[in-house]
Amino acid sequence: MDVNFKIVSIISENLGEYMKFFAVEPMHYNLSKITVSFSNRPELCDYQCNIAMLIAKEVGQKPIDIASKIVSNIKENDEFEFSAVAPGFINIKLKDKKLTNYANLVSCDVNCGVPQVFHQRIVMFDYGGANVAKELHVGHLRSPIVGEALKRLHIGMGDKTISDVHLGDYGLQMGLTILQLKEDGYLDKFFKHIVENFDNIALEGVTLDLLNEEYPKASKRKDVDEEFKKQADEYTLFIQQHKEPYYSIYKKIRNLSVAEIKKNYEMLNTTFDFYLGESDAYPYIDETIQIFVDKKLARESEGALVVDIAREGEHIPIPKKSEDEPQRYKNPMPPAVIKKYNGGDLYATTDIATILMRNRTFKPHEIIYVTDNRQAGHFEQVFRCSKLSEISPESQKLTHVAFGTMNGKDGKPFKTRAGGTVKYKDVVGMLVESAEKKLAENGIVGDKELARKIGVGAMKFGDLSNTVAKDYVFDIDKFMAFEGKTGPYIQYTIARINSILTKANEECGQVCVLTEEERNIVLAILKLNSAYKVCYENYSLNALCLATFDLASAFSGFYNNCKILSEENDERRKSMLGICVLVKKCLEKALWTLGIDSVEKM
Prior knowledge:
This protein is α/β, with parallel strands linked by helices. The chain has helices at 11-24, 51-59, 63-73, 96-108, 142-156, 172-183, 188-191, 208-222, 226-240, 246-267, 278-281, 285-294, 347-361, 376-388, 424-441, 448-464, 476-479, 487-504, 516-538, 542-561, 570-594, and strands at 5-6, 37-38, 47-49, 80-85, 89-94, 116-117, 122-126, 160-164, 298-301, 304-307, 316-318, 328-330, 336-339, 366-372, 397-403, 406-407, 472-473. Strand 4 (80-85) and strand 5 (89-94) form a beta hairpin.
């Protein structure tokens, strides 16, 4: 991603410029940038640079000789210590003074040292994946977990964000649900009486629990009853055309569902700026299709309207061995269908129209979609259509963050013991129950909200610790552990710091790094703040989770080996309390980014 950051705290970037100015340029080596990275041998040094090896290839000299020359050109200073080691690395160690200055800089920084973008962008996030009239289940968990964290990451690094749940509220599920409700007698008032205004007619007897029964019944029936499926298609079209009473019934079902969907998302600390849906893009669909027609990008195929989006080398027909053999293709990229044979619209059409609506309304620099990786092909088609038609301008970035599956311990998609789909709220209930048991072991009973924060935090950290594209195993016992690489361990570290600060009951002082444990803490904060940039560029939060755990572990070493409260030297005690406050701020910032609540006690 071509995004520049204000480097307030990433010392590796500053080190590269430092070396270039004081050592490499005076030697007349032509290099645009010097890369300095964290050392993978922390017992030897804090940072490493292999620039000497690159220069050696150009000038035909030994890397160790080049490294030694560069080190000798760097002036003695009280912040960094440079050394050349075979075969040609330059090792860099930060002196205590540099670490002290950095710690106090982060303490005073409103962003806790997190890098900020130079130029604020408007980034729109599309995540959630909820469908009206369908209950949220375990398959809906990852989208709000990943999407909310990515949104908060961009907020924390200075971008302006807009989030939209983009409800599935105009698809076949609505036609199926209304048809089933009608056949079961729940909509007689709407269909058996001539009414001018349906607003005052209530959906009597229609509840969320009923909808959760009616839709699955209708969905199964459509697979075996062709006439039922055809009628549901017709109902769906009536809804899209605002035909009564179908449209009024649809609106009432939508309102009923959205209220419950919001409650479910709030349990996960997930919020949206907009609860728009496919229905909101509907007014833009005719214009969207006309754009393709006017630009001569659309053609008719078997009564449908399609757009050819294959590029050179894609969708090449494989010669048939017989006339009866179906046509197959090399690297298949089929045309995108933007209008069905019966005039109905498809998901691709709606998503392209949604991009048109968003660009007219918000003008985002980037739109990020967070969905199951099985939708990769769909979004590839949508993005190509949007770029071909210029509905998405050349400067706009369209990104699909495709996540893997949440599996059970057997490695298969998480199911109930009977093999059914696990409800979203039931998963949260399991987490809360497990957290309550853990808290009871620590003598805390009856605090349901604390249990929710810990349980949800455990699941989120367990999810986001993995590379987003990969499947992962939902292991509630592992996630809920108060020790190890878990959310509760991070929360517990903050609770422990709160206890220290409460007992101390005094102002902290400026940090002064003197011990190895304090060095480890400040270096861990450096790595944590570098992780934000890595996550921003990779659209995955796993690096931040790992760095957050490393900081909590470093604090544990400090807590176990340093006598904070009993330190008799006043200045030294205040410095150590300052380190406690610094760690707390950085951990709370990281947890907020991940969408996890901090807690006062555990």
